């Protein structure tokens, strides 16, 4: 009898006109409990909720309990009531097209720039996908020009590399991202704005990114007032768009601001689904999901020319660079760049702390003379920082140590070389950055 029922169920599923339906039985906070669909669902399944007299609402299954499916909605829950109809929806895909360049969209692929509908491409691309196989993945490519002297000279990046930009709020992350979007040597820029302030989107697009930067970019935005699923989906959608262009052989620069807000959205989703809070309230699923997202960036399969070079901002809470998300992300990525509030307060932008920043791929992409120049400059800055308090207090007498005298003379010149305004030397190269560094040191020696 059981076998006959199973065969009948399988036959029903093959009927194109048949689809299982369920109903909302309760709502608690962010989560919705649905009955009648559990046998056909799995974690991550998409649903369509049809509140009477209102627009349909997309939702996603995040857990199961007592025969009920627990789901979260991609929009506000107004209108949802006991008995609201629920049905299965297709898996999340984005039909990316070349015409999407220059457009701004939400995480579900809907335009939000007022320029009309997006033209769908010929091939739907899955929003959730596995990273390329580690054994078949190509190696990192040649170095890439980021157009920011401090990064090109002291945290040189290679194609397919992933760097973290670690900073507290208000230290210039958005401006640095705009400089990268406008000046980096790449074909396509994909920009994910996760949990951003709504009023800042147009300011960023028009003032920071500008028409030239936007023309080669696809911007995915979920503002801070969006439901957690939308904020999480912004990161996945941007990654899927980047993968589409990389698979087509393009060199893609993926900029994500910020991974911290992505993790916060995952925490809200996990707690609503019944996960226990762990480190600083973050659920275990957060630290399992971070590598699944970040590992998707990088080179594609061996033999394919495209690659995703990723720069991910990490919002460090209270300037604590050892907080859980920052610590986890630093261990996954191929290097870290630290933006320091004190440097910004002194008026040097971008406020990159050279001594605390590191690119793990530098040994494989610098010429010996460039590596020697970088080490010399780092040594000068480190010695100058060590002696700064003594010099300020007048406890150091000039001539007591030639190395300290040289550091006092050279450090300001290096700092001047690191300072770079928005739009200054757009399209600068690694070679130009090292030439500027060498010139600063040579001029100082001559003096």
TrEMBL record:
Highest taxon, organism lineage: Bacteria
The UniProt record lists the AAA+ ATPase domain at: 159-344
Which PROSITE patterns does the record match to this protein?
Answer: ATPASE_ALPHA_BETA (PS00152)
Its GO biological process annotations read: protein secretion by the type III secretion system
Location comes to: Cytoplasm
Keywords assigned by UniProt, alphabetized: ATP-binding, Cell projection, Cilium, Cytoplasm, Flagellum, Nucleotide-binding, Protein transport, Translocase, Transport
| One GO CC term on file | cytoplasm
Task: State the Gene Ontology terms under molecular function.
Answer: ATP binding; ATP hydrolysis activity; protein-exporting ATPase activity; proton-transporting ATP synthase activity, rotational mechanism
Q: Which reaction does it catalyse?
A: ATP + H2O + cellular proteinSide 1 = ADP + phosphate + cellular proteinSide 2
Coarse class of the primary localization is: cytoplasm
Q: Which NCBIfam families match?
A: fliI_yscN
Recorded protein name is Flagellar protein export ATPase FliI
């Amino acid at each position: 009898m059981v076998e006959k029922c199973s065969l009948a169920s399988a036959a029903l599923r093959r009927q194109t006109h048949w689809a299982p339906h369920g109903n909302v039985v309760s709502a608690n906070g962010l989560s919705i409990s649905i009955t009648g669909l559990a046998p056909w669902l799995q974690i991550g399944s998409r649903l369509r909720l049809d509140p009477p007299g209102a627009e349909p609402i997309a939702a996603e299954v995040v857990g199961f309990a007592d025969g009920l499916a627990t789901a979260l909605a991609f929009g506000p829950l107004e209108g949802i009531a006991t008995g609201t109809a629920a049905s299965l929806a297709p898996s999340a895909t984005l039909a990316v097209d070349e015409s999407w360049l220059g457009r701004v969209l939400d995480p579900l692929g809907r335009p939000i720039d007022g320029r009309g509908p997006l033209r769908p491409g010929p091939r739907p691309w899955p929003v959730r996908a596995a990273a390329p196989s580690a054994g078949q993945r190509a190696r990192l490519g040649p170095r890439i020009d980021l157009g920011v002297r401090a990064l090109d000279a002291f945290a040189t990046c290679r194609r397919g590399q992933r760097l973290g930009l670690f900073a507290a709020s208000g230290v210039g992350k958005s401006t640095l991202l705009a400089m990268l979007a406008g000046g980096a040597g790449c074909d396509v820029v994909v920009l994910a704005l996760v949990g951003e302030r709504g009023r800042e989107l147009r300011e960023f697009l028009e003032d920071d990114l500008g028409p030239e930067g936007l023309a080669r970019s696809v911007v995915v935005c979920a503002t801070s007032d969006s439901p957690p699923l939308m904020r999480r989906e912004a990161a996945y959608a941007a990654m899927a768009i980047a993968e589409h262009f990389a698979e087509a052989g393009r060199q893609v620069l993926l900029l994500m601001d910020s991974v911290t807000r992505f993790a916060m959205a995952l925490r809200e989703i996990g707690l609503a689904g019944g996960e226990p809070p762990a480190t600083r309230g973050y659920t275990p699923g957060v630290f399992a999901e971070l590598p699944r997202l970040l590992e998707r960036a990088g080179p594609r399969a061996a033999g394919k020319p495209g690659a995703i070079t990723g720069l991910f901002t990490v919002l460090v809470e209270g300037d604590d660079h050892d907080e859980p998300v920052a610590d986890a992300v630093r261990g996954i990525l191929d290097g870290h760049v630290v933006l320091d509030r004190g440097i910004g307060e002194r008026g040097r932008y971008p406020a990159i702390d050279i001594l605390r920043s590191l690119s793990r791929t530098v040994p494989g992409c610098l010429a010996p003379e460039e590596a020697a120049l970088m080490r010399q400059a780092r040594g000068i800055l480190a010695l100058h920082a060590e002696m700064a308090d003594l010099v300020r207090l007048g406890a150091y007498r000039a001539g007591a140590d030639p190395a300290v005298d040289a550091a006092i003379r050279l450090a300001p010149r290096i700092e001047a070389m690191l300072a770079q305004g928005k739009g200054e030397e757009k399209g600068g190269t690694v070679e130009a950055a090292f030439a500027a560094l060498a010139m600063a040191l040579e001029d100082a020696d001559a003096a």
